[in-house]
Amino acid sequence: xxxxxDTVRIERRGDIAVLALEAPPGNLLGPRLRGALAExxxxxxxxxxxxAVVLTGQGPHFSLGSDLRELGGGQSAPTPRxxxxxxxxxxxxxxxAIGGVAAGPALELALAAPARVAAxxxxxxxxxxxxxxxxGAGGTQRLPRLVxxxxxxxxxxGAQTVPASDMPGLFDILDADDLIGAAxxxxxxxxxxxxxxxxxRRDGFxxxxxxxxxxxxxxxxxxxxxxxxxxxVVSAVEAALLLPFPAGMTLEHEIFTDxxxxxxSQALRHLVLAERRAANMPETRPGAxxxxxxxxxxxxxxxxxxxxxxxxxxGLRVIQFERTPQALSAAQQRLGQAVISQPGAGGEWQxxxxxxxxxxxxxxxxxxxxxxxxxxxxxxxLGQVARADAILATQSGLLPIDPIARAAQAPDRVMGLxxxxxxxxxxxxxxxxxxxTADWAVASAVALVRGPLGRVAVRAGTGGGTLPxxxxxxxxxxxxxxxxxxxxIERIDRVIAQWGMPQGLFRQIDMLxxxxxxxxxxxxxxxxxxxxxxxxALARLVEAGRTGRAEGQGFYTWDAAGHAHADDGLGALLFGxxxxxxRLDEDEIRLRVVxxxxxxxxxxxxxxxxxxxxxxxxxxxxxxxxxxxxGGPMKAADLCGLFEVQRALQxxxxxWPALYRPDPGFAALVKNGEGFDALNRVGKRRRAIPG
Length: 691
What we know:
- By secondary structure, this protein is an alpha/beta fold.
- Helices cover 47% and strands 11% of the residues.
């Protein structure tokens, strides 16, 4: 058969050609691998000494599916659909031998083969909908032919990896210890007794009425989904039963093409790449990180214990300090004996009231009250007892790092590590260097966060609050500006909730409590240029005794059942005189909020509070309930069209200049026909915001 490709390894086993995908680490089906596979299939088809083909993956996985970076510009030929068609029409039996994970288009290639074999522990996934995508290589047509509507829709709509053993209808052999040997045996069986192609199978159509009932049930389930492809996938699976195979494939292709172009999919794919990109910081050079095996935790409250629990779960040794035996005992009870013992996890907990015990730690994380004087006292003490090569980190995302670093007299080793709440559940950790923090300290913290702790690390500047804080403040200022015009509060919240921010703007404040939001906002507002007009409104409401849902009154009045009701007296309380009612259309309400957030994000980039626009997006989605399928505030502005956002800013700045005066970066990006995505770089240093 000639020389093997460098991305598809070809081996002959008698008259069976074994084609192994070889593009580590995940055998992603990018253009190069697809081209090599098409060439290998053609050579197998043309070789008279090859009777059948086994398709497998070299390495731990069959294939993890698509390379999302390719989809924005359209897939080059051969596409996964082309390859699936080639497998089906090869003229020689193909057996898919699946070890590890077969995901998305890779599973669709396996479905196009007349037979499949799975190794022990093999897993399958059709995770396309996690990226707002519909399958594009026959998954909606071949899968239900084998397993029926319920199992097919479980896999397609669930968008998760499941054990191959949960999908027995897909496989001729499960748990094959000798995967290739079993696949070759099945291939020889196919040669002895011809098997129908998957397109001709009707195993999953045995109960047409039950099939249609499942379609109806799932259609109701997904009716409210914000992702159009979700509803389209149900229709495509229905078409598998009702339409001839070629017509069903045509429908699937149309749905796939629409899904790739949809703003929801663009947003979701953007976030996947943004999360990967976030760890690329100026400090994270190869070899810069130092190992962290022991962490110290200062404090015994809920946040401190959650951080300690996270370290134990990761298999780290945790030394937790509290000032008194009573406080330490309370922290131990909060952690729970089951967590402290961590059977099999490798973590080891040590409680102490002796600060000197923290000298054993590679990293000490302080998680006490967010009061500057308290932080300074703690870090002054830590500077005396910690090892000279230990990193000292504060959990605070609000206070400036540099005064804390000076108190410790170790500015090169002090930084912020802000674990977003709920700590332990949230995936977001903001890494906040001070002016003098050493690169190795930042790199080591990032390696810990991304590695053992399994979180997403995002770099933030110091002294401006967390990345979501200023974005939310701008959104709240935009909402207050609309209230001042006379736009009903319930209309603003309803539109923003429908757009994807679950409680809207003002209902969220009431649910959080006006006093905590006010206190946090005042700390954030200390940074130059922060949105702060809404804080005056919060202060007036608090002075009037309206502190939120818990007390029955805030921006809304709340009944005993926890339902919010608009208060006719709110306008007069906030503005002295109730503004005359005004109606803004829904598009204008959304645009005003998106424009304010994007403008604030641009200012944060210029001030060095964020490294790149996509970092702001990741932080807002993971740390502030921003709708994932909107992609974050900066991506939302790109999807609105940056020219339209700029025009809105210019128009609105005439009335609210502090909030809406466009950052100079807008003009430069719009002039070049670019969006914020042009400022996102996978490399270490971002392109500077223009203007």
